[in-house]
Amino acid sequence: MAMDVIDYKIYGAEMQFVEIELDPNEAAIGEAGSMMYMEDGVDLDTIFGDGSAQQSGFFGKLMGAGKRLLTGESLFTTVYTNKGQGKKKVAFAAPYPGKLLPMDLSKLGGALICQKDAFLCAAKGVSLSIAFQKKLGAGFFGGEGFIMQKLEGDGLAFIHAGGTMLKRDLAPGETLRVDTGCLVAMQPSVDYDIQYVGKIKTALFGGEGLFFAVLRGPGTVILQSLPFNRLASRIFAAAPQGAGGGAAAGLLGGGGGREEGGVLGGIFGGDDD
Amino acid sequence: MSAAGRHPGRAYGPGFQTAGAAVEFEVSGFGLRVVTADAPDGTPRWSEITVRKGGFNDAQVMLEWQGRAGSYALVVSDAAAVAALRAQLAQSAPEKARLRGTGHLGADARTRRWSHLMVWATLLPIVLPIVLLVLLLAEHDRIAAWAVSHVPVAQERKLGEAVFAQAKARLRLVDGPPQAMVREIGARLTRGSPYAYEFHVAEDATVNAFAMPGGFIVVHTGLLALAGSAEEVAGVLAHEVQHVERRHSLKAMVKSAGLMVTVSLLFGDLGGLVSVGQDLIGLKFSRDHESEADAEGLKMLVAAGIRPQGMRDFFRRMSEQEKLDLGWLSSHPASETRFAAMDAALKAMPAAAVDAPALPYDYAAIKAALPAATKPAPPPREHTK
Predict the structure, then answer these.
(1) CATH fit for domain A7-224, picks 3.60.160.10, 3.20.20.10, 3.30.460.80, 3.90.45.10
(2) CB neighbours of A35 closer than 8 A, spacing ≥ 6?
């Protein structure tokens, strides 16, 4: 499957956007609502599914769309195609403070497991699917929930997460203990599980919770320093309560519905810390 | 493009790119050979290689070995390559052919214990009520029987009082010789019972008698008018007393009102049952309950030294009336059958038990003392029971 090779430039420091340069007839896919601007000649089309060639037929598309719903993406993908002459630009912005990271899937072996919601945009041909966490412990307490995203293809994909991102290559057998919720992405060769913090005193008062996420190499892992819901809960805690509380709660509670889910959201939505 | 016997994999370790390098590998009886432009050291033999499932969801096969420069790993995810690898392993290193996830992290006993605990703590509040409900539905009969048998007499009495208080408003209780007779016979029958019985006579032309939980028994004057002797009345009373003794009312409530009653019985809240008890006066006992009351009633009569034939005689009278009267009979097994069953039971009894002195009442006089409105046998229309 031929992937579109795209050139890009990332702007900004803490609240970034990426500008992608498309050659004539090149295309990029973007998460709905993430487009910031596009130049003349870029044609915008909404397709059902993720636009990868893997989905054929109506049911294939339907399946793809259903999976996208589960991972918290929208049903439709927007495809930005350069139908004009010469190079044209389209930009995608990150939805909250954090960092954008370009991931060259061809260098990562063609697949990457991501936290759901991490995907921002990609070259057309990259497919998005669900990676369902089968380890009960990791699903419940690993901080990423049971549903993760899998990016597949040979092209470039941009992922986004909160705070500063760390890309780390684990050698065979090397392990890294990570605060739950801080994992953004990893190669499928990485073992992902949970580990008890070790002492009941630490579990109760250490502030890290009962479990760490444990990552074991070989493979590349990407971590974030500030999971968004941690930031959100800090902001919420600092927001004026009482008289103005209604408005604040409305703003965060209503607007942050996806982040602040109920019990089910907590379990399936992940991002718990 | 790959030569025969070569399979795709991804190699990690010193000398390879840190994010892994796409390589091809060959397997042989000796071991593993990685074909790559990079220069890895050596071709590990099977004895040096650990084979396990690993990676996200244990979805890949990991071959790990120690080289001179450090640890290496070859990750195989291609299905054909995995199959070839397994086939080779089955020949060369059968002990490694059974690919197991090492679960090296999950094997940490404390992690496992704590995560299980937390999972249960999360799921239990959801699962437990469902399990209980299913259990209640599946074992409803047994649980109900157990609950009924554990209701204290005092509680049942309270329920009966409430029901009787409601019933009283609709009944015209009468005093006089008939009532005195009924009370005396009742007292004789129920001597030694844990229940404190109350026997009443209500002015009503229908042939009926009924028992309420806790020991409230009401006989209609219509029944007294139909009966031919004090022994026949005693037979009816013994039958009704058995309904009380065997807690048929509670059991019938459980049957008709079902789950809600069982739950309130389990939690000992009989107060809520009074609303259900509204229908208790009209409650129909099942045929099993009626037969049980018949059989036990006969024994009770014998134990009290009253001639049990009275009960049978009354039922013969009833079966004669059957075509005309549907009031009391509608819920009862056909009097014919009951009469036959009673007759058989009586014949099985020793003659000494059956032969008791007659009750000391002048029944004709008592009948004469019944309220004038009660005629011996006008076929009643209503179906109140």
Answers:
(1) 3.60.160.10
(2) A44, A78, A80, A90, A91, A92, A93
